[in-house]
Task: structure prediction
Amino acid sequence: MHKYVSGPIVAAAGLLTLSFGLLPRLAPDLGAARAQAASSTPDLTGVWSPPRTAKGFLPYSFSPEAPPPMQPWAAKRCELVGCGTGTLGRANDDLMDPYITSCAPFGIPRMMNHVSPFEILQTKNRVIMLFESGNSIRQIWMDGRGHPADWDPTWLGHSIGRWEGETLVVDTVGMNDKTWLDTAGHPHSDALHIVERIRRVDHETLENNLTFEDPKTYTKPWSSKIIYKLHPDWALHEDVICEDRILMDLKAKKDKVYPYQPYPMTFPVEAIPLPDVANAK
Amino acid sequence: MQAKSLALLLMLMGGCFISAAAFAHHGAARWDTDAWGTISGTVREFDWQNPHPLLLVDVKNDKGVVETWAVEFHPPNVMNRGLGWTHNTFKPGDQVTIYGHPEKKSVPLVNGMKSLRPVKVTMASGQEVTVDPPGY
Result:
């Protein structure tokens, strides 16, 4: 089991030390360890999540200190949702959160700052992120391809990556505009372009520096930093979004009653502001 | 029977939707965190579900009438990792006591079902459990 960057080297050294009596049996492993050490691809694998503070539920906002540079429609929408506070607790939050009202996936980048854990796997051509929330899969293509020209927007978008030394640089486009940027409620459009620089600052800690570029929503690019802590003993759980509604529906069918029940929430009277296409650059 | 099922179903629907969303993420809006309350009663049902496990408890009120209360907890993955809870943590018929924050008086009841934001639960075994796992 490799630890991160220096792991293979340590492992190879350990095997050499132990090799006298064991060499014939361990020879293939030793070769693999040497190969990995030579390629020196950083190892980001593991189960990660943002650390909880004493108050829990943090971080929720990609911009907790000050509002990001928003277009007018976005600022108005943020005022309605309360995303500037970063603390939530306002009544409108839940009533406007597509995850709660409509069982929408968090999507990218919101998944990257939610408290739910995610696991990183690495293959030859991909870095794969498995998110516990909704058991979603994010594939980051590492084979040198670009973004497709005719990509249909999706919840998680299209991600390509490359290594810059110890840092995984991920470029993502192609998200739809149906998700929130973060749990605080910052908006984004389908023009969102994200660059993430992810590196392991120590064995237990991953750091992600994100830059958001979305001229329909923000007047200039802005950045955020988030850290994740390793959970060596965790395995991802099954996580079905809106399972409560599914179970309720199944109960209704079992009881042979299937009443139409309008969604019992009262939505804010104000219309939710949408991107002003005319102002988009 | 049919009507009774329907009534329960509607109560469940309301309970799931409203209180799930309210407890869910942000919490403070629905609950009077300065006030404390206790309910004791019999477990009617325990739904081990996302986003919030739902415990229905039959509680006798001051007039001797049984009311069903809806109590929700942190998501199953949090309760499992933090406290080892599973779908078997509560069984129908269990006697439980729940201590926590009541709803604000300004919040309308959902289909007549009262709710409490739990802080401590005395389990059927008599064990007292703080339902915010460490780090929460």
In short: The helical segments of chain A are 7-39, 72-81, 91-96, 98-102, 243-254. Confidence is low (pLDDT under 50) at residues 1-28, 86-91, 257-269 of chain A. The first strand of chain A starts at residue 46 and ends at 49. The CA atoms of residues 47 and 233 of chain A lie 8 Å apart.
